[in-house]
Design brief:
With 768 residues, the chain is mainly beta. The chain folds into two domains: 643 residues, Beta Barrel (Maltoporin, Chain A); 89 residues, Immunoglobulin-like. Helices cover 6% and strands 52% of the residues. The protein has a 22-stranded antiparallel barrel. A five-stranded mixed beta sheet has the order 9-14-15-10-11.
Amino acid sequence: MRRINPLQKCGLTVFFILLLTARLLISQTGAISGSIRENSTKLFLPGANVIIAGTGKGTSTGPEGDFYFNALEEGTYTIKVSYTGYKSETRTDIIVRKNRTTVTNFELFPEVFQANEVTVNAGFFQKAEQFSAGTASFSFEEIRRAPGSAGDISRILFSLPSIAKTDDQKNSLIVRGGSAFENSFYIDNIEIPNINHFPSQGSSGGAIGILNVDFLEDIIFFPGGFNASYGDKLSSVTEISFRDGNKSLPQFQLDLNFTGFGASGEGPLGSKGSWLFSARRSYLDLVVKAFDVGSSIAPRYGDYQLKTIYEPDSENKFSLLALWSYDINDVDPLAAVGNDMKVYGYQNLTQITSGINWRTLHGAAGFSNTSIAYSYSGFNEKFSETGTMDPLLNNNSTENIIKLRNVNNIVLSSSNVLISGFDFKYYFPSFDNTYYPTTDLYGNITPLINISTNSNEYYSALFFELQQKISRFFTVNLGVRSDYFSSNERVYLSPRIQLKYEMSEVSYFNINLGRYTQALPIIITVQNSKFRRLKSPENYSFSAGYSHLLTAGTRLSIEGYYKQYINLPMDPALPGLNIMDEVQFSDGLISSHSDLNESGKAYAAGIEIVIQKKLEESVYGIVAAGYCVSKYLDLNDIWRSRINENKFTFSATGGYKPDKYWEFSGRFICAGGIPYTPFDEIASGNINSGVIDEQAINSSRYPSYHSLNLRFDRRFYFESSNLILYISVWNIYNNKNISSFYWKKSSNSKGTIYQWGLLPIFGIEYEF
C-alpha cells in the first residue's frame, strides 16, 4: 500500500528557467570557519594546528578554539587538524562556494600514553575508529551526493553489507538478520521514532526519508555493539548530527528534486545563536490534477524542520529541534489493479517530534547532555483488499510519547571516562481500530477484532559504562544497562563489554559482547490484554572485527558476528511464520492476532568486508561484501530462513571528481534472492485467495537482485549564488527485480509485483 509511483513526475522545465536567469558575473571567493574541541570534555582547544591540504595555507585556533580561512577559490578542500596529545583528524569533501562561509567543526580524541613516534594514521576515519570495525560514518557531502539514495539516509546505508537488500519501494533497515522493528535514530540526543514518510506503524521503515540532508553534519551507524547509553532496540542505532546555522549572515536555498520542491534558510539568532529551517512538499498530486491523469496514484507528502541554538556562555548550549511531516494517499480500486497492489485505500499520516537539548560543560571533568522531547504519530487509515473490495483495516490511532534523556560524560583521569545517565519515556496512545474478517495465509478466516482503548505505559532505564585505556594498545569498555517496561512489569539487566587492541598505528582488533532488550510495539500489545504480559524480545550478540589502514585515506574492515534471539512473539494460528517479520510480508501492515506466545527463537550469523576510500584527491568509494545466515525456530520445531535473508550481498559505490565543476558517481548492488513461501495453487484457486504451502514455508527464493545507479553532478558558481544540477538514473539497464508474488483475485492466479525499473531523477539546488 505504501508505494509511490516514481515515474510520474515533472519539473525539468524549472531547471532550465533557473539556469537561464542565473547571472554569471565576476569571480568572488568563499571562506571556511569552524572550531576545535576536545571530545571527552567539549572544551575548546586553543593553539591547534589547522592546515588546508595542498594549498600551503595554515593557521592556529584562537582562545575559543576557532579558526577562519578567507579568500578561498570555490572548490573542494581537505583540512588536517592536529594538537599535541590528541589524535590528528583529516576531513575531506569541504565545499567552498563564492560569497558563502562553510562551517566545519572538529572534536579531537585524546592520545593516551603518546610516544614520540611519527603518527601514520592521518585521521580520515577518526570517528568510526573509536568504535567497532563494523561502525560506519558519513560526512554531509558523502550523504548529499550518494547515488541511488535521493537524499534518503536509509537508502544511503544500503551500500553497507550489514543491511539486507529486500525491496526498492521500501527503505526499511534490516540489519544483520534482524527485522524492521529493531532500529533507532537519534538527532542531537533526541530519539526520533521514525525518519520516513509513509511509515509502517510500529516499525522504523517507510517509503522515503523525511530529513533534509542539507542540515546534516554527519551520521554514525552502529550495526550492533552499541554502548550501554542506548537501549530498547535489538539491532542498530543511527546517530545523526544536525549542524548549527550560519552565525554570521543569512543564507537561503531552493530545491527541486525527486521528492518534491522546497526552500531552506539559516542565519544568526541575535549574537549568541543561530537558526535553520526548511519546508518541502511533493508535487506529484499537482501534476496529476493539472493534466487530468485520471486514476494514477498521486500521494501527497511534505515536511518542516527547524533547529535553533542559543549559547548564553561558553559552558552552556541550548538547542531546539522540531520535525513535522504529513502523508496523504488515496488509491482507488482501479488504480490498485493497474499497479498490481494487493490492497488499496486511504491514508492520512502525521509525525511530529519536538524537543530541547541542553549541553553543559563541567570544565576538565566532562560534560552532560539532557533532553526533553515530545513525539506524536497519527494514523488515519482505511484499507480494503484489491479484487474483492472487502475491508481489511480501519486504523484510527495516535501514539504520544514524552521522553527525558540524560547522558553524562565524566572524565575520571586521562585514561578513564565514565558514561552514565538515564532514559524515561511515557506513552499515552489512543486506539480505535477495526480488523475485519479476512482469509489468512493458511486459508483460515480470521475473526473481527475491535480495539478501542487508551493505554498508558512507561519505560525507564539507567546505564553506566566505564571506558578505560589500560595501555597504549589496549582499551576496555565495561557497561551495564537496566531497563524496566511497565507493560509486562519486568526489569532486564543488559551487560556489555568491548575490547579493543591496537596492534599498530594503522591496525586494531575489537570484540563486542552484549545483551539487548526491546519492548514489543504497542500496536501489537493493545490487541489483547494478555499480550501485555509477554516477555520482551532479547538477543545476545557477539562480534569480532579487524580494521587496517591500507593507505592514510583507505580503510579495510572485516567483522564477523553472531546474534541469538529469545522471547519472540509467535501466533499458534500461524505456527510456521515469524511475527516479527510480518511488516515485510504483509505489505507494511500489522495484522491482528487473537493469541500470541513468547516461545520464538532465532539466530543470525555472518561476516562483512568493507574497503572505504575517502576523497583525498579525485576518487572515492566503498566496496563491500557480506554473507549472513538468519534463521528462526517455528512452533513446529523447524528452523526456517527469515524472509530477509539474502545470504550474500555485494556493493560497489564510488565517484570521480575531475575538477571543481563536475562529479560522476555510481552504485552497483547485487544480492541473493530472499526467501518466499510458494502458494498452494489448488487451495488458493478453490477460494480465490492466496493460501501458502504450509510444508514449504520460506523454502523458495526470488531471483538474485542486481541494479546499477549512475549520477552526474554539475556545479555552477555565480557572484553571490551557487547552483548544483544533478541527473541520476536508477536501475539503468532496467533489470526486472521481483518484489513479491501475490494472488491476483481478478484472474484467480498468481501475479508478480516488480521493484522499480529504469528511473531517471533530476534535481537542482540553488543557494543564495
